[in-house]
């Protein structure tokens, strides 16, 4: 059993289930969930300078510029709880971000253990986004039909209020899908070439997706699952 830190990346289009699966995998792997979208929403809620800058891009469904995003995520990864690794969700999203991550991990003597690519057809994504509800306190993701909370509008985990994200409107979602195809899809080839990519069918029930992800992790160098 190796004690090497485990850095695992989840890639997939908006609403493919990254956040839902990350919550489960982090428990299994005992590493923190580092979600760039959650970090941006936290900054936005606290009205920090970074949050206000990022908010304008998020509202339009565009990516926040690389220099802002890379700095924010690297700062998060340098905190003590990431010494054992992290599950990255929503980062990297551009080749420049992926290269920056490779560089920083190499400087620290670390590497990426696995990249899990969750594939879901566009039509399904639109349906998932429109029913998505998020906890204001912990960011947990629910769906009014596919993954409802026990009490409508209330988070099972911490009782927080559930809300619909501003950028989950249909027109913004279409823009986010287009941005995904143009800027994030190339990462699939980037990591496939490195031999660390696993493709997961995300168009099945939540538990079945988790099972496939676990199997992919077990087959990777992330043996402690
Ligand atoms: P992402 O983090 O990739 O944007 P989420 O985890 O927030 O995606 O999931 C998007 C929406 O789809 C949420 O409402 C979630 O409850 C729902 N969802 C996630 N996985 C599935 C699944 N396998 N089947 C049906 N709905 C799902
Ligand atoms: P989703 O769960 O639908 O995939 P996220 O919560 O990850 O969406 O991201 C929401 C928004 O935050 C994105 O549309 C983008 O504006 C911004 N964002 C999140 N991660 C990144 C990133 N790695 N690079 C640039 N922008 C990002």
Annotate the secondary structure layout:
Elements: E1 6-11, H1 18-29, E2 33-35, H2 36-45, H3 49-60, H4 66-77, E3 85-89, H5 95-107, E4 112-119, H6 122-130, E5 132-135, E6 141-143, E7 162-163, H7 170-184, H8 186-193, E8 197-201, H9 206-219
Parallel strand pairs: 1-3, 1-4, 2-3, 4-8
Antiparallel strand pairs: 5-6, 5-7
Helix pairs in contact: 1-9, 2-3, 4-5, 6-7
Bound molecules: adenosine-5'-diphosphate (2 copies).
Report strand %. 15-25%
The assigned CATH architecture of the domain at 6-120 and 184-219 is: 3-Layer(aba) Sandwich
Please tally the β strands and state the result: 8
Task: Write the CATH fold name of the domain at 6-120 and 184-219.
Answer: Rossmann fold
**Ligand set:** adenosine-5'-diphosphate
How many helical stretches? 9
Query: Which sequence of strands runs across the widest sheet?
Result: 2-3-1-4-8
CA radius of gyration is: 17 Å
Structure description:
It is built from 9 helices and 8 strands. With 225 residues, it is an alpha/beta fold. It has a domain at 6-120 and 184-219: Rossmann fold (3-Layer(aba) Sandwich), CATH 3.40.50.300. It has a 5-stranded parallel sheet, with helices on both faces. The protein has a 3-stranded antiparallel sheet with strand order 6-5-7. Helix 1 crosses helix 9 (206-219), helix 4 (66-77) runs parallel beside helix 5 (95-107) and helix 6 packs across helix 7. The longest helix is centred in the last third of the chain and has 15 residues, at 170-184. The mean pLDDT is 94. The protein binds adenosine-5'-diphosphate (ADP) (2 copies).
């Amino acid at each position: 059993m190796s004690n090497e830190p485990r850095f695992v990346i989840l890639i997939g289009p908006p609403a493919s289930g990254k956040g839902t699966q990350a919550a489960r995998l982090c428990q299994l792997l005992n590493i923190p969930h580092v979600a760039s979208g959650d970090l941006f929403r936290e900054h936005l809620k606290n009205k920090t300078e970074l949050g206000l800058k990022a908010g304008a891009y998020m509202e339009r469904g565009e990516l926040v510029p690389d220099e802002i995003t890379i700095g924010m995520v690297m700062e998060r990864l340098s905190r003590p709880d990431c010494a054992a690794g992290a599950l990255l969700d929503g980062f990297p999203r551009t080749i420049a971000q992926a290269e920056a991550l490779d560089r920083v991990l190499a400087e620290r003597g670390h590497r990426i253990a696995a990249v899990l690519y969750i594939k879901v057809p566009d039509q399904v994504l639109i349906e998932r986004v429109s029913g998505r509800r998020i906890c204001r306190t912990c960011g947990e993701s629910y769906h009014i039909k596919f993954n409802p909370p026990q009490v409508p509008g209330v988070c099972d985990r911490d009782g927080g209020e559930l809300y619909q994200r501003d950028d989950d409107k249909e027109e913004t979602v279409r823009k986010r899908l287009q941005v995904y195809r143009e800027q994030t899809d190339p990462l699939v080839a980037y990591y496939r070439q490195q031999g660390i990519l696993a493709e997961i069918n995300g168009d099945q029930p939540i538990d079945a997706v988790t099972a496939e992800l676990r199997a992919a992790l077990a087959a990777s160098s992330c043996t402690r699952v």
